[in-house]
Amino acid sequence: MAALISPPFPASFSIVRFRETSLFSTRLLPSRNLQQRCNYGWCAVKCRLLSVSLAPSSSPPTVINEPHKYFDQAIITVRSGDGGHGAILSMPGQRSNSSQGRPEKRKTRKKNSYRRDFDGSLILPMGGHGGDVVIYADEEKDSLLEFHSKSRYNAKRGGNVDTMGILTSQLHDELAAPTLRIPVPVGTVVKRKRGKLLADLAQPGDEVLVARGGQGGISLLDLPQHERKKMMALTTNVLRDDTDKVLVHGQPGEEVSLELILRVVADVGLVGLPNAGKSTLLAAITLAKPDIADYPFTTLMPNLGRLGGDPSLGAGMFSSEATLADLPGLIEGAHLGKGLGRNFLRHLRRTQLLVHVVDAATENPINDYRTVREELRMYNPEYLDRPYIVILNKIDLPEAKDRLPSLTEEILRIGSVGTPSEVKLNSEAPDQPLSSEVVIKEKKLEDYSPPLSVVGVSVLRGIRIDDMLKEIRKALRKCMDPTEVSSAFNSPSETGK
Ligand SMILES: Nc1nc2c(ncn2[C@@H]2O[C@H](COP(=O)(O)OP(=O)(O)OP(=O)(O)O)[C@@H](O)[C@H]2O)c(=O)[nH]1
């Protein structure tokens, strides 16, 4: 953040007014929750910066790639409430300690006004339980950004027992503080900071108790020595010496630092280089309204869309309904943290099916496709074992349409063989003699299975969208039946021709 507001910042910054007009490009920040995001101090600064730098011009604005880095992780500190204090009470009819020296309004109380348990023992009031802290998955939330502006959460303390000093039937257990419930997006993993995993809140409504409120202190009866023996038969809460007073204090709540990590929950992950058309695809087949623009990195955080079931398949097949995630463009080196890449690769973890979106009108679409596959492999080779289909997009453009058959053929050719090649790797240095070599098997792109299908479409012009949908649904059904996937890998369909 410091970098944003230091040297490049114009001196006139303080008098530049923040305008929420077209100058403020919703393309830089996703439109959903835009207002919410701009409520944060740091975001307001960014908005101002944008309004300065986005003077009307045809060139795309410089991307300030700060917020995306944090939408899916946050560190917060929570503290549960302390327990309320109990009190040292006097028996009715006795002068309370607290009222000593003051004129006492003595009320006559009946002996049977004590609250008693079923066995006749006295029930003395307790300090209220401190508020617990619970984190729960809420469908309304879609990012962890808000935790960067507020990272501390304290539950309330339990109520104290009234210290009037006289036990009456009106005294009851003091109120427990309410549980502090913190909503997070579905798919959030909750961990202790640099510690163990506490919960994976993968379903709406999942919750985890992260800090337990302190227990309330107990109350004790303060009695003259000669009455103690008799009363101890009725209740153990009789003050015997000064050390007993410790029990009267409520227990402190606990404070914990937590790491929240969001892993998007989606069945299908859309991957591809920036500008390939992933957001346009998502908007074409779901009700999602992602930000679309003709410059890279429009998408700064995953957009989710719900793909409805296919009614034409009948009730039994209606389960082909799925959630799609448009993941921001990968670039070469993304696995090393270049571009926006690495932050988003983890969001593929929960997906069942990958949809590679390739801009078929670029100079070298096959190279683009290989770049993305390679990045996935470098980040996590397991991603390449996942079923996938390839969408060759922008076939409305002549340069894409003409080479569609050859591109389809080439993509299917990558990965049709399937035997891992043996690679000799030197464990110390490349020019060391063979004696120190270890032979390991490393899979190359060609060694992984080919796509389940390759489809040529234009998501912008709506060309062959139905074919693409059919393939996505078919692949999803196969994902649910793993035996079908392996057989399907051997006979991919070529709907691109
Ligand atoms: N001609 C043509 N243009 C398309 C098609 N699909 C998308 N585009 C354009 O390609 C540009 C990029 O589209 P996006 O959907 O934002 O691309 P993206 O892959 O989501 O980009 P990132 O957000 O950077 O990852 C936009 O200008 C779209 O209008 C298509 O089928 N044909």
TrEMBL record:
GO molecular function: GTP binding; GTPase activity
Region named Disordered: 86-114
Residues annotated as domain OBG-type G: 266-477
Cited InterPro entries: G_OBG, GTP-bd, GTP1-OBG_CS, GTP1_OBG_dom, GTP1_OBG_dom_sf, OBG_GTPase, P-loop_NTPase
Coiled-coil regions listed: none
A Gene Ontology BP annotation from the UniProt entry: ribosome biogenesis
GO CC, one annotated term: mitochondrion
Domain of life: Eukaryota
Extent of the signal sequence: none
SUPFAM superfamilies: Obg GTP-binding protein N-terminal domain (SSF82051), P-loop containing nucleoside triphosphate hydrolases (SSF52540)
Annotated keywords: GTP-binding, Nucleotide-binding
Occurrences of domain Obg (ranges): 68-265
Transmembrane residue ranges: none
One Pfam assignment: GTP1_OBG
Compositional bias of kind Basic residues: 104-113
Protein name listed in UniProt: GTP-binding protein OBGC2
